[in-house]
Each structure stands twice: as C-alpha cells, then as structure tokens.
Amino acid sequence: MKPLVIAIDGPSGVGKGTVARALAAELGYQHVDSGAMYRAVGWKALQLGVPLEREDAVAAIASGSTIEVSATMVAIDGHDVTRAIRTPEIDKAAAAVARLPKVRTILVERQRAMGESGGIVMEGRDIGTVVFPHADLKLYLDASAEERARRRANDPAHSGPVALAEVATALKERDRSDSTRAASPLYAAADAIVIDTTHAAVPEVVAQVMSIVRRTLAGER
Ligand code: C5P
What is the pTM of this model? Predict the structure, then answer.
C-alpha cells in the first residue's frame, strides 16, 4: 500500500507540531510544518524591509527563496532560522504574509510537491482543505483558547512574553486573522476527524491518533 498522506490542521498553540512529529516518527514518515514556510517568508520580508502587505514584493521573496523545512531545522536561502522564526514578531509577520493569495499559491505548490509520493504528515491551517484535499487521513485538532495560550506560553521553542494574558491576546488576534481571511481561511474539512484536546495530555492524543491511523492503514475507514 502506498504510504499515507496525513493532514493535520488546527489553530495556533493546539499542539499540532507535537502530535505530527510523534506520528511521523512512529510511522517513519516525513514531517512537514507548513507554518514554518510562512514564518520564513515573513522573516525574510522583515529583514529586507519589505512591507508585509505588498503582495507582489512578498510573493517575489517567496518564489525567489529556497526554503528547507526538516524535522530539526528551518532554513531560508541557507540561513538557519529555526529559532529566529519563533518570536511574537514573526507570529504576526507569518499571519500577515499568509493572507496574501500569491504567496499562498507559491507555498502550496511546494507543499504539494513534498507530498507527491506519500509518506508524509503535514501540519498547518489549510492542509486538508486546500493543499491535500484528497489526503488519506485528515485530522483537525482543537482546544479552548485559554488552554492553547497556556501551552504556547510554556513552549520552549517560542521566545517572547511569558505573561499568559499577553500570549492569550496575541493568540486571539492570530485566530481572528487566520479564520476570517479571504484566502484559505482556517476551518475543518468536512471529512476531517475533529479531536478536542483541551482536556487531553499529549501522549493520550498521540495514542488516539495512532489508533485512527492503524485503522486507516488496515482499510477499516
Ligand atoms: O503554524 P504556525 O503558527 O507556525 O503558522 C504561522 C502562521 O502561518 C499562521 O498564523 C497562519 O497565518 C499561517 N499558516 C497558514 N497556512 C498554513 C500554515 C500556517 O496560513 N498551512
């Protein structure tokens, strides 16, 4: 059987990365964090002083840059930006460039190419709806805004304010931007399995998802 294409979507701070990483490791699949690509483009635009609402200029950055996303590192044009892209400033910049349809077209095309031969777990906001509408398995992780803010504040990969109230305010603003934008807004695909993780610990969610994957691999769903 061809290795699966697994799409994981959901709002910021829900734990998609942790679940996707664990799943990919367990299955021996490639794990791709598509958000890191929007972050890398936002980072480079800021470096070059390009206003984030200038669609053509930002799209030119996206198309002219080499973006590498591996399990351990994110690089743009050979610069390691793994840590630099996990800041409150880049949270905002990524959400701003992600609103631009021309930027999305370029990144979606690259994301599809990565999934061509299957064996991939890709996480993001539009993976099950736009990038891989025919994914073998679509998961949509959700959690309350309060719980997501708490998780984000405790995430060692992210630098910046640790005051919960500040994290919560920024997260709500990003939720609003991601789910109300015209281009590929965040929502659960009609055929996605929605999992509310508000009261579940990571190992529990991973175990639940793995049992769904096993059923998918066995052709039971
Ligand atoms: O997942 P992460 O928080 O790193 O994504 C950063 C931003 O990139 C999101 O707020 C969202 O605006 C955008 N994004 C997107 N589509 C994806 C992944 C991320 O629009 N597939």
Answer: 0.95
